């Protein structure tokens, strides 16, 4: 088995943006709905952890989302992108409320941000706390972030035969994007080998139907693995068709380690996997690219509970830790994760989505107390 230092170096090489800077500028983009309630918890946690690890943070408030669109006509103001690109080391993004039908001039700001800033990977760890009777879930879903159906090439036209409407959407899978997502997934698997001597990578696809697009995804992932066999020799390589993947994910979640998926399957899988660990409110993510890391809870704007002060801040707090990890501050990240795990394990101070009666700020204060 390769040495730990090799895993670390390999991971840092792939990520490329591990700065290890101790004075960090962080953009805060709450967006809409509960995004406004959970993003401040990320800031509070950073302000608490900073002095313990010699880190200082400079925060910049930034706008994006549906309300921003209603106010200014732009869902993602140019200023937000410019500030992130030129001034920020990292950022925290809350959630945006998107209309389900087309609104002229509006498009999802997070999808646009991922594209503008080259945030090609969305890393989503899904982990349960170790308590008796709990199925052990500890997986990372690595979602390709830039293509697939999210290139949003759609058209609606009238079918000549029936005279009724038809809508087409283009699914794009490229060799370049697949190669880099496979690489980061394999390097995350290498990192996990440090803690667990037996790690597997599962490539998910639907190449039995989409033989060209998903076929290419599958082929390129395999090529990346095989062309670096010495480095990845300790990783068990698997492939799983997306439908049977979902079935296995719910029946035997403990069998999965690192899953790499095209954009849409990755999105759906991670929301589904959230059900395995109690709530969407505890699942974090990091959008990773060469210049910046954006932590983002997996949940949406949750209009049903927005404004009630009961949204679960844990997904955001964990996303904050992930952001720090990708900025090279693993110990600070680990301390945050440990404080969150300890809150969850004790199972006392919790928001209603986890069956509790506490508020967002009760949970934040409890995590901060444990830091
Ligand atoms: P959007 O349109 O922005 O995606 P949504 O309501 O369709 O919003 P989510 O925001 O992901 O989708 O919410 C799905 C469900 O999970 C909702 O019932 C919501 O209340 C709940 N939920 C999501 N995030 C949290 C959270 N942080 N705390 C508590 N409940 C949450």
From TrEMBL:
Enzyme Commission code: 1.1.1.87
Source species, domain of life: Eukaryota
PROSITE patterns: IDH_IMDH
Coiled coil: none
Pathway(s) the chain acts in: Amino-acid biosynthesis; L-lysine biosynthesis via AAA pathway; L-alpha-aminoadipate from 2-oxoglutarate: step 4/5
Gene Ontology MF terms in the entry: homoisocitrate dehydrogenase activity; isocitrate dehydrogenase (NAD+) activity; magnesium ion binding; NAD binding
GO cellular component: mitochondrion
Family annotation (InterPro entries): IsoCit/isopropylmalate_DH_CS, IsoPropMal-DH-like_dom
Annotated keywords: Amino-acid biosynthesis, Lysine biosynthesis, Magnesium, Metal-binding, NAD, Oxidoreductase, Phosphoprotein
Required cofactor(s): Mg(2+)
Alphabetical GO biological process terms: isocitrate metabolic process; lysine biosynthetic process via aminoadipic acid; tricarboxylic acid cycle
Residue ranges annotated for the Isopropylmalate dehydrogenase-like domain, each copy included: 25-367
Catalytic function, reaction form: (2R,3S)-homoisocitrate + NAD(+) = 2-oxoadipate + CO2 + NADH
PANTHER family assigned: DECARBOXYLATING DEHYDROGENASES-ISOCITRATE, ISOPROPYLMALATE, TARTRATE, HOMOISOCITRATE DEHYDROGENASE, MITOCHONDRIAL
Family according to the record: Belongs to the isocitrate and isopropylmalate dehydrogenases family.
Protein name: homoisocitrate dehydrogenase
């Amino acid at each position: 088995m390769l040495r730990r230092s090799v895993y670390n170096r390999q991971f840092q090489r792939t990520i490329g943006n591990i700065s290890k800077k101790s004075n960090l500028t962080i953009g805060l983009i709450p967006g809409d709905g509960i995004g406004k309630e959970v993003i401040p918890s990320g800031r509070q946690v950073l302000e608490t952890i900073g002095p313990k690890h010699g880190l200082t943070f400079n925060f910049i408030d930034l706008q994006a989302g549906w309300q921003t669109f209603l106010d200014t006509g732009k869902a993602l103001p140019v200023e937000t992108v410019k500030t992130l690109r030129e001034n920020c080391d990292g950022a925290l993004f809350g959630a945006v409320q998107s209309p389900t039908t087309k609104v002229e001039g509006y498009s999802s700001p997070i999808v646009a941000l991922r594209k503008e800033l080259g945030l090609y990977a969305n890393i989503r760890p899904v982990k349960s706390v170790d308590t008796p009777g709990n199925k052990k879930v500890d997986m990372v879903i690595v979602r390709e972030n830039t293509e697939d159906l999210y290139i949003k090439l759609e058209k609606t036209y009238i079918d000549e035969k029936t005279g009724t409407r038809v809508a087409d959407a283009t699914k794009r899978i490229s060799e370049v994007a697949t190669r880099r997502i496979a690489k980061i997934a394999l390097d995350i698997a290498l990192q996990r080998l440090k803690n667990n001597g037996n790690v597997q990578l599962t490539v998910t696809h639907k190449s039995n139907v989409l033989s060209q697009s998903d076929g290419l995804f599958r082929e390129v992932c395999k090529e990346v693995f095989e062309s670096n066999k010495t480095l990845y020799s300790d990783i068990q390589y698997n492939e799983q068709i997306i439908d049977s993947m979902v079935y296995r994910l719910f029946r035997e979640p403990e069998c999965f380690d690192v899953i790499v998926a095209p954009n849409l399957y990755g999105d759906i899988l991670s929301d589904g996997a959230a059900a395995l660990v109690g709530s969407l409110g505890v699942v974090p993510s990091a959008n990773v690219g060469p210049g910046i890391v954006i932590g983002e809870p997996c949940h949406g704007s949750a209009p049903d509970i927005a404004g009630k002060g009961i949204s679960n801040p844990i997904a955001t707090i964990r996303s904050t830790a992930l952001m720090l990890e990708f900025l090279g501050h693993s110990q600070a990240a680990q301390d945050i994760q440990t404080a969150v795990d300890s809150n969850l394990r004790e199972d006392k101070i919790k928001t209603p989505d986890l069956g509790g009666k506490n508020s967002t700020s009760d949970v934040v204060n409890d995590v901060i107390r444990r830091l």
